Amino acid sequence: MKQETRSTCPYCGVGCGVLIESDGAHITGVRGDPDHPANFGRLCTKGSTLHLTAAAAVTRQTRLLQPMRRPTRGASLEAVAWDEALDSAADRFAQVIREHGPDAVGFYVSGQLLTEDYYVFNKLAKGLIGTNNIDTNSRLCMSSAVAGYKKTLGADAPPVCYEDFQHAQCLFIAGSNTAWAHPILFRRIEDAKAANPAMKIIVADPRRTDTCEIADLHLALQPGTDVMLFHGMLHLMLWEGWTDAAYIAAHTSGFDALKATVRECTPERVAQACGIAREDLLEAARLFATSAATLSLYCQGLNQSASGTAKNAALVNLHLATGQIGKPGAGPFSLTGQPNAMGGREVGGLANLLSAHRDLANPAHRAEVAAFWGVPSVPEKPGKTAVEMFQAAADGEIRALWIACTNPAQSMPDQATVRRALQRCEFVVVQEAFSTTATCGFADLLLPATTWGEKDGTVTNSERRISRVRNAVPRPGETRDDWVIGVQFARRLEARLGRAGTLFPYADAESVWNEHRDSTRGRDLDITGMSYAMLEAAPQQWPLPEGAPSGRTRLYEDGVFPTPDGRARFADVAYKPAAEAREARYPFSLNTGRLRDQWHGMSRTGTLGRLFGHVPEPTVQIHPQDMARRQLKDGDLVHVTSRRGSILLPVSSSTELGLSQAFIAMHWGSEFIGGSASTGEPLAGVNALTTSAFCPDSKQPELKHAAVKILKAEMPWSLLAVAWLPQETALEAREALRALMAAFPFASCVPFGAAGTLQDGAPQRVGVLFRAAAYEAPPEELLVRVERLLGLAGHDSLRYVDRKHGQRRTARLVREGQDARLEAFLLAGDTRAEAWIKALLQERLPAQSYGRQLLKPGAAAPVGVATRGKVVCSCFGVTQTAIADTLAGTSGTEAQRLAALQGALKCGTHCGSCLPELKRMVRAAPVGTAGPLGTSALVLQP
């Protein structure tokens, strides 16, 4: 039976509404909800493909569909019944608690859980077990923003809303590639700029990202110097008389102490420390202070730092000093990274918080929560935060870990410590929807959870707006909702700990939410006037206390703040350099960040080959001058090494970066890149490099900077194997190939997609790409296994083998009409023919006449076979070459040429995620010629 269900996107913190189309037990489509106030029907590339990640073939190959138990460490997982799984978990946790105390267990949960899930686990840890050892991957994401808001404004509450984009006269974007991390908000920024061309946009970011394409001023500051930048801007505001003395006197405290600090931050000193021009510093300060309304947007560039709280607070200082807060279009706006990081903070789902924004350190708050829950007390001892929790497990202090809806074996910094923790911990439970995450490999017990399209509950987005998440299809297999798993475990644990068994009486998600709602009465986020019935009609912003007709759009319009004296507090914070200083041995500053079409560890987006069109493979990017200085060229393999570990990656040049800077996307974990280090240990992805140094206030680690060195890896033998595979087996083949990665010093394995059109309804081709390198040719049996997994082992494959020189070529062609198409190939030893052979396969070009050339090492590209470049528009499969060819015949203004391009190819007309790149390409192409569009300067990846 076909139906349409309103729900919310499970990706970033924008909180877009979606309409899920389903037919019986299958999700068949998704589109933006035109009535949802976050997105008004728009979706980005990730949201637009949600239904494809829920396809039956994907679910069967990637989903965890029944409980699994590992009888002993190192043994294979075995299926187990739910009752037996939960009983064993309760037995083990109860044993650890009795023998070692409640703080010997820990819970690590996720900003992708629903608020109801979060509430149950928070109550389970702090109310039942009596430990504050519960933290979340939001600690890696938003904890510095929380601490910054509380330090200055008195409460963790973004004071602005999405409507403020259209009221702002100046937009100050700091440490956020909004165009990629929050694409639908960027569409709103583009709309606001088009409606008000006089609006000025400033972007402060070490990289020249797609977000900079809309900027009037780009401050390419040195990594980690944000506090110095903000202090320098305030210094100039004071010098020029651009502060709001009346607002400061009436609504703030602590300004004199801050003035003494910023007095030393002269333009000369700031320009030198930040690596920017004095004139640009002055212009940024002028625009911020003197515009009628200034709105700042910030994200991980400020948060993921050992000075994260100071960076957040220093930016808020600028708003308080200029009165740019509490009015339409003005205020500091922290962009939430995950879909429900805000909801997790609301229920107190972090080691230092309690329900409804109460502080664990406050005795009165602990007493309130204990009384509300009906328990004798809430523990006083601070819990272990994310980094501390895994360090404690590695040290043997935490003996049982429960991990829900997150993948710390990919996402946590300093992977050597994290993996040691997971190996040493006596009992590890992983509650997960996807069986393919790296963390599942460390689990003693795997519990299958529902995911998007199957769950029921609520989430809160960046603007304090609560939306309903609804199930559109039945739960697959034996999966259960996260809150249900938590309750069923808690009830068993209650019995084993000799408790009365009344803490978890919930019958459904709504009953959990109602208890959470009641806990907010009288708090800054009071939602006692909100109900599921009200949310069924429309999403609502908090606060919305009982009796109020609607939620509050923006906060602090009356200049009264939730502090003891009602005044906002200037934070007198000092500038400190990045935690890990660069030196001659480690001369590069490594930055990590998002890709446009991928999400976190790619357990969901990584199932779709089409989402790898824009960035097809992992690389490390550095500046062209750094490439030349080290005699590197695009595609060369390099060792990237920090004080904690080393990984191998291809290198690519990028003018987006400054000198001595490097960038690796955060998504590349051991699920996609690997190999075996000299120690024999498997490589652990990008977070083998990152540091666990964290902000002393927020405990958020510095994922945005690590000192690294980059050295060329001399590995003369290489391998590339690519194949189209049946959709029903492609992901299983990738998992099997992933198991072979450790046999090579370097290997990567990623989905491979066709540049098809999302809207045409045709089945999407599914492919797998396997790349490896070694010092010498590996055993032939290993290559035969690769061939077998990619369908190249049959008698219908052409093959050339030169064992003496380590050369191997295999190709399989499939007859189509009067010709044949290349279906799969393997190049081993010499991969110089990669570009044209891969194009032959990807473009489905006639290949019958190229049989001999396919098997010839280093064969030159035949006439008529050319690569189309990377995919720019994922929705319509539009590539660089197609764009270049189309632009060559256009004339007129940039806007006219863009319109002609979109009219001809449709690129940028669906989700809009590619618009910044399209505009850059239009500007770069001279009228009447393709210009530099086909050159490597515009290619982010080789």
Main features:
alpha/beta; 7-stranded mixed sheet; 942 residues; 5 domains; Rossmann fold; 7-stranded antiparallel sheet; Barwin-like endoglucanases; 31 helices
Describe this structure in words.
- This protein is of the alpha/beta class and 942 residues long.
- It folds into five domains: 68-139 and 340-519, Rossmann fold (3-Layer(aba) Sandwich); 143-334, 3-Layer(aba) Sandwich (Dimethylsulfoxide Reductase, domain 2); 584-713, Barwin-like endoglucanases; 714-860, no CATH class; 871-938, Arc Repressor Mutant, subunit A (Orthogonal Bundle).
- The chain contains 31 helices and 37 strands.
- It has a seven-stranded mixed beta sheet with strand order 5-4-18-17-16-6-7, with helices on both faces. A seven-stranded antiparallel beta sheet has the order 28-31-32-30-35-34-33.
- A hairpin with a 3-residue loop joins strand 14 and strand 15 (358-359).
- Keywords: 4Fe-4S, Iron, Iron-sulfur, Metal-binding, Molybdenum, Nitrate assimilation, Oxidoreductase.
